Amino acid sequence: MTNAMTTDLVKLGHLFADIMTSHDLSRLDEIKAPDYVNHNAFAEPGLEGSKKVLGAIIAGVPDLKVTAEDVFASADGSRVVGRYRYEGTHTGNLLGYPATGNPFVMRSIDIWRVENGRFVEHWDELNTLDVFIQMGAVQPPRQP
Questions:
Q1: CB 95 within 8 A of CB 130
Q2: How far is Cα of residue 62 from the mean position of the Cα atoms in its chain?
Q3: Quick one: pLDDT band at residue 134, thresholds 50, 70, 90?
Q4: pTM of structure
Q5: What gap in Å lies between CA 119 and CA 107, rounded to an integer?
Q6: By C-alpha distance, which of 32, 16, 104 is closest to 63?
Q7: What end-to-end distance do the CA atoms of the chain give, in Å?
Q8: What are the tens digits of pLDDT across the range 106-122?
Q9: How does DSSP assign the chain, residue by residue?
């Protein structure tokens, strides 16, 4: 894999954060294939399913900002891995939870499979329990 290809794949991972922060989900067409496969329990299938779940997050957190903390490309050019920080204020309905006005920070680790310069498949790990605790939707676990 050439350095230019690695750079382009890393830029793709940063572009995801930029698009999320801009809240212009129509731009996801630039980075995700139409037959995008998302292995995330909250997302419906395809690119439209991805736009729908990300739109729901933005609706619940209108001041959402996403920062790419680390983005890496695999040596063979087939994967992009990113570590992201989501932050904002829960001022709208978020995945069925009414607004609390609470600020929160969520972190994710995302892995995308890439073909022809676009994301075609996605896996992630999210600290959703921590988010629901910060929003006040779930009580924190008791300390022993």
A1: no
A2: 15
A3: confident
A4: 0.88
A5: 20
A6: 104
A7: 50
A8: 999 999 999 999 999 99
A9: --HHHHHHHHHHHHHHHHHHHHT-GGGGGGTEEEEEEEE-TTPPSHHHHHHHHHHHHHHH-TT-EEEEEEEEE-TTSSEEEEEEEEEEE--S-BTTBPP---EEEEEEEEEEEEETTEEEEEEEEE-HHHHHHHHTSSPPPPP-
